Amino acid sequence: QINFLNSVIVDLQRKNEELKIKLKKLALAEFNGNDGTDGFGEAVSKREKKPPPRLFCDICDCFDLHDTEDCPTQAQSPDSVPHTTYHGNPAEERPYCDICEAFGHATESCNDDQTF
């Protein structure tokens, strides 16, 4: 019985040494940037890459069509009033019409025919 137990201990020590060598090889291979297979049957599995996040538009509240930054409703509509091109003196007071809500003429000189 003692001889059997001694043989089991010797086998376990030998297996332990083999596993230590295998562990050192795997650690060295991973440190060097290899995939860690080095001729062994079992490979160290790499983490699977996650798919890129889906496009989502906060304005339209929809997935996969476009991103919020690329939303077509953000673009200035063609029938909107263009930005001012007035480059006059900022200290000079410009005439403004409260009826038309536009610069260019005073309220007193507004043509009522244009209002609706």
TrEMBL record:
CLIP1 zinc knuckle domain mapped to chain residues: 54-71, 94-110
Principal cellular location given in the protein's record: cytoplasm
The organism's place on the tree of life at top rank: Eukaryota
Coiled-coil segments on the chain, per record: 2-29
Keywords: Coiled coil, Cytoplasm, Cytoskeleton, Microtubule
Keyword Methyltransferase on entry: no
Localization: Cytoplasm, Cytoskeleton
GO cellular component: microtubule
Protein name in the entry: CLIP1 zinc knuckle domain-containing protein
